[in-house]
Design goal:
The protein is α/β, with parallel strands linked by helices. The chain has eight helices and seven strands. The chain has one domain: 3-Layer(aba) Sandwich (Rossmann fold), CATH 3.40.50. It binds S-adenosyl-L-homocysteine, 3,4-dihydroxybenzoic acid and magnesium ion (MG).
């Protein structure tokens, strides 16, 4: 596939509707300086999440997988002054780096980072009667994606939007004999969508600056 056209069009779109300000640029720089693979979403994808948060007038957002807080910043910018975004990250070092980027973007009053395993923190939130979220973005480790999705529904209300990143994996989901546990994890979720009566859902293929992939877009009934 010719990815160059997707990259060029992504830049065309970003130039018009998803320009990074200095805080987002600095966040991207922090990823490059850490010398790790940049698995943050793209600017255009960040803007898409922001559009969805705005569409549902989100006041409460939950994110799984903070990394350097690049997606966190795009999402938090859709929140009103009394809004709240909780982002869960397993790696303490990563949380500290993310917090710097959030402080730099002047979003610390809206964003709460929680360090721990997503499943454990989900369970804590369910046990402590955490009020439902308006939008949930699932972007942590892939093997338990189905478990995350089911727990996300428990922290939802009718109308909650649930978006899950990386569910197409360069088309690897077509392989019914896949052995990669990340691929198997997202296949389990994708298969579940056809049987789950609690949601209305689709999968959007994503092309552009990042690898060919896809996102589950679901609304809780
Ligand atoms: N949402 C980010 C990218 C997240 S990358 C963005 O688009 O900018 C995935 C992150 O999930 C990594 O930082 C990784 O440390 C974290 N992670 C992996 N396993 C996890 C788990 N079990 N619970 C919580 N976070 C986890
Ligand atoms: C991976 C994780 C992501 O969240 C992503 O957007 C791309 C790749 C990964 O773990 O391979
Ligand atoms: Mg991702």
């Amino acid at each position: 596939m010719d990815n160059e056209i997707f990259k060029s069009v992504d830049e065309y779109i970003a130039f018009r509707v998803a320009k990074e300000d200095t805080a987002l640029q600095k966040t991207s720089t922090s990823v490059r300086e850490a010398n790790v693979a940049d698995i943050s979403i793209s600017p255009v994808q960040g803007k898409m999440l922001q559009v969805f948060a705005a569409a549902c007038s989100a006041k409460r957002i939950l994110e799984l997988g903070t990394f350097f807080a690049y997606s966190t910043i795009w999402l938090a910018r859709a929140l009103p002054l009394n809004g709240k975004l909780i982002s869960i990250e397993i790696d303490e070092h990563q949380t500290a780096l993310a917090q710097k980027n959030i402080d730099n973007a002047q979003l610390s009053h809206l964003v709460e980072l929680r360090t721990g395993k997503a499943i454990d923190i989900f369970q804590e939130m369910i046990n402590s009667d955490e009020p439902p979220f308006d939008l949930i973005f699932v972007d942590a480790d892939k093997p338990p994606y189905l478990e995350y999705f089911k727990l996300a529904i428990k922290l939802s209300r009718p109308g909650t939007i649930i978006i899950c990143d990386n569910v197409i994996r360069n088309g690897a989901v077509l392989d019914e004999n896949a052995t990669d546990e990340k691929v198997i994890g997202v296949q389990r979720l994708n298969n579940y969508l056809s049987t789950c009566n609690d949601i209305v859902a689709t999968i959007l293929q994503t092309v552009g600056a990042k690898e060919y992939d896809g996102m589950v877009m679901a609304v809780v009934k």
